[in-house]
Design goal:
heterodimer; A: about 110 residues; mainly beta; 4-stranded antiparallel β-sheet; 11 strands; B: mainly beta; 6-stranded mixed β-sheet; globular
């Protein structure tokens, strides 16, 4: 079965550079979530989209922005990167209209800022 | 706002030992409960979930969890662990918002399980 696809798998950037992470949800899933997992930490919710509209916002820095496109894929744009942004970024998708739809996670993008 | 507490941060067991990982949540409304597992270097995978009905939920790989509403708990159990169960386990709570219908998943801090052969 098709899963959540994230690209790239690994990304190395320098401080103050920008990065774009992409997420392709499971087909027919209309809700996308972004999570950040620092080394040895639990996933922290960043932001989510339902039907191409931002539906919730968590601890996402102002330097980051995201959007969901007409084909439901989502991109997380990160600017002015800092060393502390080094983390594993997970995308998850679900069927937002279905109450009992669990989140399905992608493999994550490991971002290293040097 | 909902929150999730996992009291055991590190657990070390020998193979064949029984496992119980604690999870408590705080939220007054209707919740869905999940356990996710993260094997070393891999992504989060759904282990089991509770939405409604029988409070004893069975998941993959011999895991089960019991929802005790009065205690706001959803503890994970396995009668006999294997070396391959070495991983990090996250409890998560999903609370549905009435107006937007949006589901937001909140994770606990995770429990790192090490099973020695």
């Amino acid at each position: 079965a098709a899963g959540v696809i994230q690209s790239p798998r690994h990304l190395i950037k320098e401080k103050r550079e920008t990065a774009t992470l992409k997420c392709y949800p499971i087909p027919r899933h209309d809700t996308v979530y972004w999570y950040q997992q620092g080394p040895g930490q639990d996933p922290q919710f960043l932001i989510s989209f339902y039907e191409k509209m931002q539906s919730d916002k968590g601890s996402i820095p102002d330097r980051f922005s995201a959007q969901q496109f007409s084909d439901y894929h989502s991109e997380l744009n990160m600017s002015s990167l800092e060393l502390g942004d080094s983390a594993l970024y997970f995308c998850a998708s679900s069927l937002g209209g279905a109450r009992n739809s669990p989140l399905h996670f992608g493999n994550g993008t490991r971002l290293t800022v040097t | 706002a909902q929150s999730v507490s996992q009291h055991n941060h590190h657990v070390i067991l020998s193979e064949a030992a029984s496992l119980e990982l604690g999870c408590n949540y705080s939220y007054g409304g209707t919740v869905n409960l999940f356990w996710y597992v993260q094997y070393p270097g891999q992504h989060l995978q759904l282990l089991l979930k509770y939405f409604s009905g029988d409070p004893l939920v069975k998941g993959i790989k011999g895991f089960e969890a019991e929802f005790i509403k009065s205690k706001f708990s959803f503890n994970l159990r396995k009668p006999s662990v294997q070396w391959s169960d070495t991983a990090e386990y996250f409890c998560a709570v999903n609370a549905r918002r009435k107006n937007t219908g949006f589901q937001k998943l909140v994770f606990g801090t995770g429990t790192r399980l090490l099973v020695s052969p």
